[in-house]
């Protein structure tokens, strides 16, 4: 059966830096619940599927409206398996069940600031273009031309020393992956990486973007979420 769009949310059970991160309580709900609820509220998807290896996650996400048609294999649940392989496995499983989708949207489980209007914008722009991908992005908070690294002696070394005296306003703006969602046309192939000419970036304001990999990230996300709720 040919369908239009599906959301795939990867949610491995073995988070180490923040134990049980995907289902850790975030203002009264498991973190992953925010991604599921926004996906459902967008009314874009025939299905919202979570791919996980963890039975506790299965129980929780079903309560919040997602489907779990299979348990992710062990070989796709380690620290080294990339999101691409996990999502491909999910789609191939569904295709073997006779389900075929034109658009696939990977949504991260750690995106409590996700807003449905940006999901919708990504879908509409991708559908009405010859691009293959559309993904969440945001502006860099500091000119990348003036950044530096530490050398082997622990001293500074600029990536672009020619811009040491450049004014910030004279430098070209740079963007980064916002780590929230990634749309893809299922039956079109791209010879480009995600950050290439076959992709449409959906630009989010920085106050809606926060990776959650460490406890410090988690605390910052809490501050941002509180500010967002207070502002209405």
Notes on the protein architecture:
The protein is an alpha/beta fold and 232 residues long. It has a single domain (2-138, 177-231), classed as Alpha-Beta Complex (Spore Coat Polysaccharide Biosynthesis Protein SpsA, Chain A). The chain contains five helices and ten strands. Strands 4-1-5-9-6-10 form a six-stranded mixed β-sheet, sandwiched between helices. A two-stranded antiparallel ribbon has the order 2-3. Strand 7 (148-150) and strand 8 form a beta hairpin. The model has no long low-confidence stretch (mean pLDDT 95).
CATH architecture: Alpha-Beta Complex
Could you name the ranges where pLDDT drops below 50 across 5 or more consecutive residues? Answer: none
Global outline:
globular
CATH class: Alpha Beta
Sheet with the most strands? 6 strands, mixed
Secondary-structure element pattern, one letter each: EEEHEHHEHEEEEEH
Q: SS-based structural class?
A: alpha/beta
Total count of strands: 10
| CATH topological fold name | Spore Coat Polysaccharide Biosynthesis Protein SpsA, Chain A
Work out the helix count: 5
Strand content is 15-25%
Placed side by side, the strands forming the largest sheet appear as: 4-1-5-9-6-10
Spatial gap, N to C terminus: 41 Å
Compose a concise summary of this entry.
Helix content is 27%, strand content 24%. The chain is α/β, with parallel strands linked by helices and 232 residues long.
Labels describing this entry:
single chain, 232 residues, alpha/beta, Spore Coat Polysaccharide Biosynthesis Protein SpsA, Chain A, 10 strands, 27% helix, 24% strand
């Amino acid at each position: 059966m040919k369908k239009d769009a599906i959301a795939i949310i990867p949610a491995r059970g073995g988070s180490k830096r923040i134990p049980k991160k995907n289902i850790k309580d975030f203002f009264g709900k498991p973190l992953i619940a925010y991604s599921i609820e926004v996906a459902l509220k967008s009314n874009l998807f025939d299905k919202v599927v979570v791919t996980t290896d963890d039975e506790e996650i299965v129980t929780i996400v079903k309560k919040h409206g997602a489907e779990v048609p299979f348990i992710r294999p062990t070989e796709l649940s380690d620290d080294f398996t990339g999101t691409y392989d996990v999502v491909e496995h999910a789609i191939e499983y569904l295709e073997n069940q006779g389900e075929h989708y034109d658009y696939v949207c990977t949504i991260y489980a750690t995106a409590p600031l996700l807003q449905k209007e940006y999901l919708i914008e990504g879908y509409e722009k991708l559908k009405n273009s010859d691009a293959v991908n559309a993904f969440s992005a945001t502006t860099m908070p500091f000119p990348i031309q003036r950044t530096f690294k530490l050398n082997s002696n622990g001293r500074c070394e600029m990536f672009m020393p020619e811009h040491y005296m450049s004014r910030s306003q004279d430098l070209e703006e740079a963007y980064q992956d916002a780590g929230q969602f990634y749309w893809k046309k299922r039956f079109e192939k791209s010879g480009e990486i995600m950050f290439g000419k076959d992709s449409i970036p959906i630009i989010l304001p920085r106050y809606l973007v926060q990776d959650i990999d460490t406890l410090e990230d988690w605390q910052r996300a809490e501050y941002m979420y509180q500010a967002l709720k207070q502002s209405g």
